[in-house]
Amino acid sequence: MNYRHIYHAGNICDVVKHAVLCRILASLLNKNKGFAVLDTHAGSGLYPLDDTRAQKTNEAQNGIRTFLNAPDVLPEN
Prior knowledge:
By secondary structure, the protein is an all-alpha fold. The chain has one domain (5-69). Helices cover 39% and strands 0% of the residues. It is built from 3 helices and no strands. The radius of gyration is 15 Å and the shape is flat.
């Protein structure tokens, strides 16, 4: 098992993590006070899913790719 993020990019945990983060940031934007965000675990910030390392585990297939191919059933904000 390799714990470098590229091997697990786009998995279901990534999808949930980013969805929650987006909702938190959207809520903070509604406040009339400023805020700062410091991401201490961003890594390289770009993980191509066509990279051979990402395809080795293919975790994105059941994560972000499933999400992107799902019908749009949630209300838009």
